[in-house]
Amino acid sequence: MVRQQLVNALGIKYIKLHFTVALLEDTKLPIYKVSALRGGMGEMLLRANCICDRNCERCDFEPECIVHKTLYSKYNLRPKFVTAKDSIGYILECEDDRETFRGGDLLRFNLILFGKAIVYFNQYIGAFLALGKEGVGKGHSKFQIISITDTRGKQFLIEGFKDRKQHQLYTLGEYGSYRAKQIQENYSKHRITFQSPVTLKHQNEFQNVFQMETIWEAVLRRIYMLECFEGMDCSIYDCMNLEGNKMPVIEEQVCKDVFVTRYSSTQNKKMALWGVKGYAELGHMPDELLLVLAVGELTHIGKNTSFGFGKYKLT
Known about the structure:
15 strands; about 25% strand
């Protein structure tokens, strides 16, 4: 019963788009490509939709601006701890760390849309179609989109045109249940591996080693932010009771500091983002904790998730 209540509480809808693009010429791209993809996506959204001078603070149309509804989606219920611009509605992922590409090489990346951001998925797709013609990154590397599929392989592009048929949506609870069952069937001991840098704080201190309590709280916090984004009445904190569910112990870990340089067009300067990569071997994992931690695979955790930070996988 507790497990089903938890799944029901994780009712936030999502859709995951898998992009495959072909580079049209020999080029170089950064190791961490999400920042370049996000920056390019934002620029294409601005070009297509901004009807003023990009001075958002003085724009009369800001409340209805499509760019703000896609890049900086607003919470229905804003959490007290959120002070930065909103960017909770989407996540970009790219695990390809190659820097050198030949013309014709394929690059794959993912775009995950949550809740009300899903309604704008044609805006996101249109931005990447335009970005392919303009070019991504410092070298303006042009590409052609070969395919866009959902998790089950259903095409979003047919002969270059967006397919507007209804697509399957899933919930965080469905994802967590599926992954938890998959993990339990295949692994007797568990490991959490951070595939992109993660930036976590505990008691206002940045963490340069993995602490299970900090990771757990970051997952709950992220889910709660999405609940506030959707304006849901229920809260993950109300459903998650740790009494009788002992937090798994980190038995061994390997981690390293990672610095990622990105260029901020709004501040017109380079910025360094810091995080930690590595893995931690975990002790016994109660079922409910495994389900919620599995959800964190999808949502990412910590700071700078819109730049691809905080992606992990459980095994």
